[in-house]
Amino acid sequence: MTLKLIATDMDGTLLTDADKSFDRDHFDRLLTRMNSAGVKFVIASGNQLEKLRQYMTGFTHRGITYIAENGGYIADDVEGDILISGFSTAIVHEIMDVLDGFPSVGYIVSAHSGAYLLEDRAEPITQLIREHLDFMGAEFPRELDYKTFINRFYPGTQVIQSPSEVKDTVIKFALQTRRRDLDTVLKQLIEVLPRQVVPVASGFGSIDLVSRGVNKGSALKWFCDREGIDTSEMLAFGDNSNDLEMLTLAGEGVAVSNAIPAVRAAADTVIGSNEQGAVLHYIEQKLDEMGA
Question: Which residues contact 42 (CB under 8 A, 6 or more apart)?
Fold first, then answer.
């Protein structure tokens, strides 16, 4: 295949599980090769834009495009905001009304300029994230207050008392439940959410609420059309159900070996795991094959 764009998910795909790292020296060399060959590099993630920029510290103005919030936000270091797909104010309030019926589920309102946490939902999401980190064997400061703790994962989070305080364009709701409850909560949400809203599992007990028709695949299709790239010229990597549209869109969809069964089944190729740095090794192989 002619290769003009490489897109990758972050959590569970490029990043290791416990310390959320990747081989930065290896990536640096590959990014230089991609830039020289005219191959665009896109990060497509459920994370906030600010969190993605933190992960990519040291690679500013190196030609990286960010598709954040599961396709709801496209930006780069040159143009800044490229595309924002937000909810209407009415839908935001409908979603919050629905979530009132799920008191054990923590959630963050992820918006254009930052994120918002209702104070009365702070305890559930903080506790659930701590439990997840314990499960993964990750090291984290246990004495942090919940505001500081949450900001490590959702930078710029403001604590609010009422949904009426959210004046920003809301792009996504980031929900956190226990891993064992994920499928049950997902089914319940599908039954009660407005039809314009789609719940998508993004791994480790996380569920993202996004606008119907907005996903990593739709964002990449829009971006490819804008750049004059055929989707057959795209290589994409993922591990979870929120990567399915992206992998099936790409000329070659690649699943890491730790991906869920549905993603491995949908992929054209299955490689090693995120813990083995398999994404970077496969990118290197593809660049070698094209002589880049």
Answer: 5, 6, 7, 8, 64, 65, 66, 67, 220, 223
Which residue type does 290 have? M
Q: Across residues 228-248, what is the average pLDDT?
A: 97
CB 206 within 8 A of CB 175: yes
- Return the sign of the alpha-carbon dihedral for residues 77, 45, 205, 113: positive
Rounded to whole angstroms, the Cα distance separating 97 from 110 reads 17
CB atoms within 10 A of CB 124: 18
- In the predicted model, is pLDDT for residue 92 greater than 80? yes
- Total count of residues recorded for the chain: 292
Task: Map residue 101 onto helix, strand or coil.
Answer: coil
Lowest mean pLDDT among 2-16, 141-155, 180-194, 258-272: 141-155
**48: phi then psi, degrees, rounded to nearest 5:** -65, 155
Buried b (16+ CB within 10 A) or exposed e, 57-83: eebeeebbbbbbbbbbbbbeeeeeebe
Please tell me the distance from the alpha carbon of residue 233 to that of residue 256, in angstroms, as a whole number: 20
**Distance of alpha carbon 189 from alpha carbon 198, whole angstroms:** 9
